[in-house]
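Notebook entry, structure prediction.
Reason for the run: the old model in the group folder had no record of what sequence produced it. Starting over properly, with the input documented here first.
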Amino acid sequence: MRLAPPPCRGTRRTHTGLTLIELIVAITVAAILFTWAIPSFQRFSARNEVAAEVMRIRTALQLAKNTAVTRRRVIAVCPIASMSATKCEKYDWSLPIAIIDGHATAGDLTGVEILKVLEPSGGPSVTFNRDYPVRFQSTGWSRGHNGTFIICGKNSAASFITLSNMGKVTRGSEKKAC
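New structure, fully documented this time:
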């Protein structure tokens, strides 16, 4: 094994590594980027959680409407606490949403068939401005069961969905207060 000769007297040694000033500048730049990026990422995440919840509710309503038309029967949609629940949870639409074959009169689930359950995303809170299940007639209309869903997420991210008497589901463009 041969060792490298010691540097000669007039040659320059090259340094590897950072000086203290370079390190301080790098840390300062990183701190500025993090103070800008973290709040932006939190707002982005909150908007995506709200968008996912909007999609879940729209999917449930569209699926129920299509099922009512194809089966030529009344199909109801309501939130349930568990698969063994005997009543709809009237106010908390953040729970799993059940698509039910039948009227589910006054939220009663005895003697009805649960066709599908859409699991919640676990993020935003969802409310509906009515205290009864949404029902679609065999024509696809939700006559008398229309209303507005308000989805409230973190960092004041919010959206709303309107269900018309004709069964049309639209996403609102203006913001609702949560």
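Summary: DSSP finds one helix and eight strands in the chain.
The old model has been moved to the deprecated folder.
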